[in-house]
Olfactory receptor 11L1-like (Pelobates cultripes), 58 residues
Amino acid sequence: RRTMCENNQTKITEFILLGFQDFYNLKIILFMLIMLIYILILSENLLIIVLVTISDHL
């Protein structure tokens, strides 16, 4: 008797990523949202670096 692992020889060689081609407004909103999150993360990291540099206790 064969198990599933022996019978299944499927190999995935590539992925095709489909975007939001029909939703131009959604693309703009998602871009702005991701950009805002990215800027917030950079700002918070910069704030941590500045606080650690300035403070003697940290």
Notes: The mean pLDDT is 84. Residues 20-58 form one domain. DSSP finds two helices and no strands in the chain. Helices lie at 4-7, 24-54.
